[in-house]
Amino acid sequence: MQKWSSALGNLVVGDPAPCHALIPRTRKVSDTVESVIVAIDGPSGTGKSSTSKAVASALGLSYLDTGAQYRAITWWMITNGIDVSDPLAIASAVGKPVIESGTDPSAPAITVDGLDASGPIREQDVTSKVSAVSAVPEVRTRITELQRSIARAAEKGIVVEGRDIGTTVLPDADLKIFLTASPEARAARRSGEIKGADVTATREALIKRDAADSSRKTSPLAKADDAVEVDTTDLTLQQVIECVVTLVEEKRNTAGGAEKRAAR
User: Among 121, 137, 153, which residue terminates a domain?
Assistant: First the structure.
């Protein structure tokens, strides 16, 4: 296995807990850095969104929440009366909505046909149906093209979070991170975000979503072979952020991310 020598120790790519040796950061993070593309994948409740936004902010990078795009197209399907249990109906309508994603990590925005969809896409109706919609191949093709175009346009680099970024959307990303956590930890975190949510029910819902995402034929949830796996179960959010920032800086400095992409 490939190893990285770093401030975090010798990290084995695929090691389930590379951040457990985390040491405090003693240097200031630059707010302008060499262009780099970072893919952060993992299931719900592992800290993907919070970590990705914080890392992008710390390093002066753009940020893209790809899950919001799938939620946005699901919301559009629902509000426009498309039968989301019918893959053919979904496929025939997939090119109609205009989806635009903001990439400012401090205020990520998403609009559908010019309307702010940041609130509606988080409603339970969308949450319960997004897996079915995102499993349709035509949906994944449309959204993947959108994601790649946004990443290409990010001059200073970008942190892209999702479930298939390192494996399908951006397989040549400079750094790939795969976040994991125990089902119990994930359920507790997600329940804390939703007022009145039941932890047990949330855990069951997460496991069901994992099964759906991991078993779909097109671009399933999976860890890339060259991704660094970070188990966040026993880590604070700040520790995870520090870990990923360190990995990004070291990868950028040792691999010359901008030169690698320029040669593609």
Answer: 153
Name the average pLDDT for the chain. Answer: 82
Strand pairing class (158-162; 62-65): parallel
Take residue 261 and report the two structure tokens written for it. 């992409």
Q: Where are any strands of DSSP class E within the chain?
A: 3-6, 9-12, 37-41, 62-65, 99-101, 110-112, 115-116, 158-162, 175-180, 228-231
* Dist CA 15 CA 19 (whole Å): 10
CA distance 9 to 5: 6
- Region 47-57 average pLDDT: 94
How far apart, in whole angstroms, are the C-alpha atoms of residue 218 and residue 167? 11
Bridge partners for 111 per DSSP: 100, 116
What is the tens place of the pLDDT at every residue in 179-238?
Answer: 998 888 888 877 666 555 677 777 777 777 767 667 667 777 788 999 999 999 888 899
State how far the Cα of 106 lies from the Cα of 124, in Å rounded to an integer: 24
Quick one: average pLDDT of 91-102? 98
Q: Which of 248, 134, 227 is nearest to 172 (CA)?
A: 227
44: containing domain = 1-61+156-264
Q: How many folded domains does the chain comprise? A: 2
CA dist., res. 24 & res. 7, Å (int): 9
* Helix (H) / strand (E) containing 255: helix 237-255
Which residue type sits at 131? S
C-alpha neighbours within 13 Å on the C-beta side of residue 68? 23
**Residue 68: count of CB within 10 angstroms of its CB:** 22
Using the 8-state DSSP alphabet, how is residue 20 labeled?
G
Pair (54, 71) in one structural domain: no
Taking a C-beta distance cutoff of 8 angstroms, is the pair 136, 73 a contact? no
